[in-house]
Specification:
Length: about 400
């Protein structure tokens, strides 16, 4: 996966890591500027060298195009987009109709396959590397019948790790990394403390799986992709929520495996507000160490998604607020002092209603946000690589509203 997202899990009510660099994004997708949709707003940053890799002056025709996909739960669709030259365009064939209501999306680390979890099971699509267009795999049939509300493909492309709504177990589905279809072997499972899974992510080194498991806290389990059963459930660690009444809603891992993050409702002790917790990743093998100052107030009541960007310098948290009020995206700078890590709160920018998913586009120029309650459905914020500040650049619907976007996945 190179995501990350936070899917709308029906057990939740209101509510990846991606290892990519700007230079990797340059080599990933080269294509002419796609024909845009006339109603999409043009970003002023298309000719800014700091926003377009390889552009050393006032360049007018940057060639980077970033593909990403949004699941619209209300309209049962996959909406595909690209950002090129600072312009948002629909991918050819988008939106793609789904048979049933979707919950979760994940992209293989190769960037060649998109997996979509729905009420009827998990579907796979081949991603055209030039156009971003999707082609249904497995003759348009599900590859497995499990209902997944959160999932990620491991770094080897050999396993799809997922959990469903109300599930009390993780499932690892074997994949063929070449075809994207089912691989040899059987599905493997690992039990969880509670039937309240909100999000599942794998660490960039593929060594651990992290599960935001609601009121019971966060589960961390060793993961060995080379084993016939990759879960080391006997060595699982459960991190309780910080405060009474809290709930672990989101998880993420630093791209350099320095820390891992947990977003908790009631995570901040000063009232009913969300908090971002940070833990030293290396301490998983000894005594778990939480970063100084953690948990950090993230704003709102529900930190539904966490995005450490590929540079590792900044972390963003999407926060919902109660009563249909527009949410926010909070920025934190990653600080290193000798061997200690901590976060420093930065700027906060307004989002839409009930923000539920974040992703970084493959160029590293934009942080992408989806708002399940709309107002708007989709936002792209230009990213200042020096300060981490976000600037509103693009906003759009993802279909005929209300669409209720619930998951976003970006091609690495």
């Amino acid at each position: 996966m190179k995501i990350f997202r936070n899917e709308r899990n029906p057990s939740r009510g209101n509510g990846s890591f991606r290892k990519a660099s700007i230079w990797a994004g340059l080599g990933a997708v080269i294509l002419p500027l796609l024909a845009g949709c006339g109603d999409f707003w043009q970003s002023p940053y298309g000719t800014n060298p700091s926003r377009n890799p390889g552009c050393t002056s006032n360049c007018s025709t940057p060639t980077v195009a970033a593909f990403f996909y949004v699941l619209n739960q209300a309209t049962k669709q996959i909406a595909g987009f690209s950002i090129s030259n600072g312009k948002l365009s629909k991918i050819t064939g988008s939106p793609y109709a789904l048979k049933d209501k979707p919950y979760a999306a994940a992209i293989a680390p190769s960037g060649g396959f998109l997996y979509v979890g729905t009420d009827s099971g998990i579907f796979v699509y081949t991603i055209n590397s030039t156009s971003g267009a999707l082609t249904a795999g497995n003759n348009g049939q599900v590859i497995v019948t499990e209902v997944a509300s959160t999932m990620q493909v491991d770094a080897t492309g050999a396993w799809l790790v997922e959990a469903g709504p109300g599930s009390s177990a993780l499932t690892a589905v074997p994949l063929d990394s070449t075809t994207g279809l089912l691989g040899s072997g059987a599905n493997q499972q690992a039990a969880l403390p509670a039937s309240a899974v909100q999000q599942v992510v794998l660490s960039p080194d593929n060594g651990h799986v992290f599960v935001a498991d609601g009121p019971s806290g966060t589960v961390v389990m060793p993961f060995l992709a080379s084993n016939s059963n990759p879960f080391e459930s006997s060595l699982a660690l459960t991190i309780p929520v910080k405060n009474l009444g809290g709930s672990a809603l989101s998880v993420a891992v630093d791209p350099q495996n320095r820390v891992f993050y947990v977003g908790e409702a009631f995570g901040n002790s000063t009232g009913n507000s969300g908090g971002l917790r940070a833990f030293n990743y290396a301490s998983l093998t000894s005594t778990l160490a939480e970063a100084p100052g953690s948990p950090y107030p993230s704003g709102g009541v529900s930190p539904n998604a966490i995005l450490p960007i590929s540079s590792g310098s900044f972390v963003y948290v999407a926060n919902s607020k109660a009563g249909g009020v527009a949410g926010t995206v909070a920025e934190f700078a990653f600080e290193v002092s000798e061997s200690a890590y901590s976060l420093t709160a930065g700027s906060t920018i307004a989002g839409g209603i009930d923000p539920v998913g974040l992703a970084e586009d493959s160029s590293g120029n934009y942080v992408l946000l989806i708002d399940s309650g709309g107002g708007p459905d989709l936002e792209a914020f230009s990213l200042n690589a020096t300060t981490g500040a976000l600037t509103a650049a693009i906003s759009s619907s993802t279909g005929t509203d209300p669409t209720q976007p619930v998951s976003i996945a970006a091609v690495p």
